[in-house]
Amino acid sequence: MASQTLDQTKEKIEGVITLIGSAFAFSLMTVCIKQIGGRIPVAELVFFRSVFSLSITKIMMNRARVYPWGVNKKLLLTRGLIGTGALFCVFKAIESLPLAAATIIQYTYPIFTALFAWLIIGEETKKRIFISIILGWIGIQVVVHPLWISSTKNQPLQLSSIIIALSGALLTALAYITVRKLSEKENRLVIVFYFPLVSIPITIPFLIEKIVFPTGIEWAYILGIGVFTQLGQLLITNGLSLLPAGYASAINYTQVVFATIWGIIIFSEPLNVYILIGAAFVLSATLITLTGLTNLQ
């Protein structure tokens, strides 16, 4: 019994570490996208990212001798479609909004994740997780509200960009649920493999219509997008196999903090009282989630 409890504790700790690691990796991905500055179309960035991910994942699967096509092919394809839609929205939001604002709006997804986890896969969400999600939501509103009515560089945020970012959050939540469900039977590499497998054929028509060849440092940023997204996907898939979706979502609020830091340091985005208060709410939400892991069975 003691050994089983110890193993469960180790799993929880591993889940937390991998999820925070994924948040850090995804935050670096957003920096690379932002550095490109919108010159290269979003579909092209998704294509390059998908080619890199497909190649690396296939090599990892061959080494591990993992059967690539999985068991539940329909759900795997669905995960790929949802993930591709989410990626398009997230990349476009990062391109068109301040980094902190894009990340914070994207991180409305935990409330959708908890709801979908309950409605779709019947996953119980404890009271403290709802509390942490609400705190995180309040933190997001504190930061976003002044951005809606003012601007970071004397340019108001476009409603269309905000809608795209919120759509990315909704699709991200659905992707989390499908990954959580698939993790019950599918190998983690197979789940990651299907994402670019679906993304590549979807992006090709966009490339035929319009392609912009990267130059110089842009290739380094594109490589960074591929590396950090792949690392983030592997880590988050592992984390979702170890922790319920609601807990995972609340922990991933930490990406908001990382994005805010990069926005200040790299892009000279101003730090104001709204961001500080919002960050405090987000960190409180994460801490409540972490303390609740001791009671997670």
Give the SSE layout.
Elements: H1 2-36, H2 42-64, H3 73-96, H4 99-106, H5 109-120, H6 127-149, H7 159-182, H8 188-209, H9 217-242, H10 245-251, H11 254-265, H12 273-292
Helix pairs in contact: 1-9, 1-11, 2-3, 2-8, 2-9, 3-4, 3-7, 3-8, 4-7, 4-11, 5-7, 5-10, 6-10, 6-12, 8-9, 11-12
Notable features of this structure?
mainly alpha; 297 residues; 0% strand; globular
Description:
This protein has 297 residues and is mainly alpha-helical. It has one domain. Helices cover 79% and strands 0% of the residues. Helix 4 (99-106) packs across helix 7, helix 8 runs antiparallel to helix 9 (217-242) and helix 11 runs antiparallel to helix 12. It is globular, with a radius of gyration of 19 Å.
**Terminus-to-terminus distance:** 13 Å
* Overall number of domains: 1
Low-confidence parts, pLDDT < 50 over ≥5 residues? Answer: none
Mean of pLDDT: 82
Order of helices and strands: HHHHHHHHHHHH
Strand content: under 5%
| Major sheet | none
| Overall morphology | globular
Question: What is the helical fraction, as a range of percent?
Answer: over 70%
Helix-and-strand structural type: mainly alpha
SS elements, strand count: 0
Rg: 19 Å
Q: How is the quaternary structure best described? A: single chain
- Counting DSSP H or I runs of 4 or more residues, the number of helices is 12
